[in-house]
Amino acid sequence: MPSFSIHTLGCRANQADSEQLAQILLGAGFQEVAFGQPADCQIVNTCTVTREADRKSAQMVRRAARLGEQVVVTGCGAAQKGGTWQRVPSTALRLPPDQRDQILEKIGARHCPSGERLERGWLRRDRARALLRIQEGCDQFCTFCIVPYVRGRARSQTREWVLQNVLELGASEVVLSGIHLSAWGRERGEDLADLVEYLLQETRDIRFRLSSVEPDLFPERMFELMGDPRLCPHLHLVLQHASDRILERMHRGYDLAHYDGLVQKLRQVPGASLTTDLMVGFPGETDQDFETMMGYVRRTPFARIHVFPYSQRPGTAAARFPAQVDEAILQARRDRLLRLAQRKQVAFQRENLGTVREALIESESERQGWMKATSDNFLPLLLRGGPAMRGLRLRCRLKRRWGEQIVAVPEEGF
Ligand code: SF4
After folding, report:
1. Cα(231)–Cα(154) distance, rounded to whole angstroms?
2. Cα(238) to centroid of ligand 1, in Å?
3. Which of 192, 226, 269, 355 has the most Cβ atoms closer than 10 angstroms to its Cβ?
4. Order of strands, edge to edge, in the sheet holding 70-75?
5. pTM for this entry
């Protein structure tokens, strides 16, 4: 049986693409092996969002080339002319993200057992949680971001396509993802709340979660839909910065007041959690801008924050901005923000102790006899049990913190 492995760098959108590639290959009779093991086809799903991500992507492609005879490079690195692509072995095959459904053709028929190819390739691989890419590209052109240049204009799948794929995935939880997910349906005069409402109406036992969303086009009707227990009360609402001056220079398309308005509405949803991305060291960021960001983080109940140091991307507008922030200042700001983010994360976990949440049981923990789960409001949980519980959704009481996780106990009746 031919084999493949996938290594994924970068965001949820890339993870969703890797999931789809795996489904197609599994459907064609391939066997998946862990990355690092020899395999007939080694896939590296690259990310170019920062210079460091670009460097790591090229490094993983070179590692993959040592492990298998065929290497496929996909993700943003495969969509770019320069960057990662210039630094990979010449034998690597390029698979731009919008051509991922052509993976079988790309790697050639020699690995595909005849008669076993599937047209769409959506097989059940992970009945606990599946990521589904429903939107591609971006029209926002944030000044630090290379994505619109490598992923093209915003476009989205139709609601019928999404429903069909949700049903075929057969997962307990489906995470809807996209490059600019809030822009879903815009080209047809629809919005993301229309889609979620439709999915909740047309499905029965599936729980939905939104992947990362941008504040500018986020439909406020979504907060009403969060009254349905099948829509997770969790938003990864990307902020990037809390200084309006910096948000404008980033060309983000909203100000802090708009962002905070969404946060206040989310806080009306019982138990809801808020996570975000923040960037430090954007060109021209002053001490005052940074303190504005720290102040906003202190007074806002973020459950988790991903902190990104600004990284200059050739080809973006911000790379040409004056007043690039000194590396030592950038690192010091990043460290301060990381420490605050850690305190916020622990505070949110503590607040949730004693509450009852719906947990999705996902995989075996490294701790013998325990399973890893995720609550509807995105807390990492540990429950006693074994692999037979995978994919179950249970009401659980959150008992105590154990390292980075929370020990949860199913409520009576289970
Ligand atoms: S919204 Fe901004 S950061 Fe996000 S993909 Fe589009 S341009 Fe990049």
Report:
1. 24
2. 10
3. 192
4. 31-32, 3-8, 41-46, 70-75, 93-94
5. 0.84
Give the model confidence (pLDDT) of 2-41 as tens digits. Answer: 888 899 998 777 887 888 888 788 878 888 888 888 888 8
**Ligand 1 atom closest to Cα of 148?**
7
For the chain, the C-alpha Rg in angstroms (whole number) is 22
Ranges of the chain whose pLDDT falls below 70: 80-88, 109-127, 413-414
**Ligand 1 centroid vs 71 CA: distance in angstroms?**
28
**Upper half-sphere CA count for residue 285 (Cβ side, 13 Å):** 29
Determine the pLDDT at residue 117.
36
Strand-pair category, 356-364 with 393-402? antiparallel
Fold of 129-352: pyruvate-formate lyase- activating enzyme (3.80.30)
Q: How remote is the CA of residue 402 from the centroid of ligand 1, in Å?
A: 36
Cβ proximity of 186 and 220 under 8 Å: no
The chain-wide mean pLDDT, for the chain, equals 89
What sections of 68-102 are H helices per DSSP? Answer: 76-79
CATH number assigned to the domain covering 356-410: 2.40.50.140
Class at the top of the CATH hierarchy for domain 3-111: alpha beta
Q: Which residues line ligand 1 (CB under 6 A)?
A: 138, 140-142, 145, 147-148, 179-180, 214
Tell the residue nearest (CA) to atom 4 of ligand 1. 180
Q: How many CB atoms lie within 10 A of CB 314?
A: 11
- Domain spans of the chain? 3-111, 129-352, 356-410
Q: Given this model, what pLDDT does residue 81 score?
A: 65
Per-residue pLDDT, 123 = 39
Distance from residue 178's CA to the centre of ligand 1 (Å): 11
What atom in ligand 1 is closest to the CA of residue 141? 7
Q: Which residues pair with 182 in a beta bridge?
A: none
Residue 249's contacts (CB-CB under 8 Å, 6 or more residues apart) are: 143, 282, 283, 284, 318, 321
Cα atoms found within 13 Å of the Cα of residue 96, Cβ hemisphere only: 12
